[in-house]
Amino acid sequence: MIRDLCDGQLEGAEIGSTEIIFTPEKIKGGTHTADTKTAGSVCLLLQVSMPCVLFAASPSELHLKGGTNAEMAPQIDYTLMVFKPIVEKFGFKFDCDVKMRGYYPKGGGEVIVRMSPVKQLNPINLTDRGTVTKIYGRTFVAGVLPFKIAKDMAAAAVRCIRKEIRDLYVNIQPVQEPKEQAFGNGNGIIIVAETSTGCLFAGSSLGKRGTSADKVGIEAAEMLLGNLRHGGAVDEYLQDQLIIFMALASGVSRVKTGPITLHTQTAIHFAEQLTKARFTVKKSEDEDDSSKETYIIECQGIGMTNLHL
């Protein structure tokens, strides 16, 4: 996909290959289609293409095909409900239209993403978590799965959250995905907590054969509660997704996080190699955080400039 976005050369990109050689050229806007042909995640396609098309010569429209709600990747609902509002703080907007939802193993989902290039990215400061003000989400069933599963996932998640957070209404809507907007069968859940300072945290889970609806709901609820305990201003999954943008931004970005994930360490390693940006990770010095594993990731961004604009 990235080769096509920039008319580059790519050698060795086939199954069984142990080495690839990629030579990028000028990033161009316009309409591009990328199809995984499997349940491969459209959200991962979006993750890798977004920093590129921000520095294209003209606006882009990306038609991304594959899984929208797949394991080992963000669900499209996470991308829209959590990643999008936070990443837009870097000073750009994108529009994402979910045409068809696709699940493991068939895939068949499609999203259309539209975005315009920017001159530069602004740095971000996400260090003030605030207090949780809202908890909301959706559970879904698609295809032949009975609607009761969606209701059961929601009820189990609400019960689990209530044990720890009693004073907030938890609004989780069960949804039957319309036939014409979902390919194949699937079920899952996403729950988002919003804070007084606009921070967003999520917990999510997908149904698998042999896993009860209750278990799926509880897994998402426990993931959300875990992300609310560490005192950071982002959840463990947003952490690594912000690194490349921090590296490219103009100025110093600071993000407060819980324990640093291996994904984040890897993202920092490669962002530093590719961009000459400098990252530091320090234990948070706030007295509120002293008992917790809370860190500040700071980055001096390189101020990448779009020469086409």
The tally of helices reads: 8
* Helix and strand composition category: alpha/beta
In the CATH hierarchy, the architecture of the largest domain is Alpha-beta prism
Shape: globular
Ends: how far apart?
Answer: 23 Å
**Pattern of helices and strands:** HEEEHEHEEEEHEEEEHHHEHEE
Question: What is the number of strand segments?
Answer: 15
Cα radius of gyration in angstroms: 20 Å
What would you give as the CATH superfamily of the largest domain?
Answer: RNA 3'-terminal phosphate cyclase domain
CATH topology of the largest domain: UDP-n-acetylglucosamine1-carboxyvinyl-transferase, Chain
Percent range for β-strand residues = 25-35%
How would you describe this structure to a colleague?
With 309 residues, the chain is of the alpha/beta class. The protein folds into three domains: 1-115, UDP-n-acetylglucosamine1-carboxyvinyl-transferase, Chain (Alpha-beta prism); 132-230, RNA 3'-terminal phosphate cyclase, insert domain (Dihydrodipicolinate Reductase, domain 2, 2-Layer Sandwich), CATH 3.30.360; 234-302. The protein contains eight helices and 15 strands. The protein has helices at 2-5, 42-53, 76-87, 147-164, 213-229, 238-241, 243-248, 262-275, and strands spanning 9-11, 21-23, 30-35, 60-66, 94-102, 109-115, 125-126, 132-142, 170-176, 182-183, 186-195, 200-206, 252-257, 278-283, 295-300. Helix 4 links the parallel strand 8 (132-142) and strand 9. The chain is globular. The model has no long low-confidence stretch (mean pLDDT 97). This is RNA 3'-terminal phosphate cyclase.
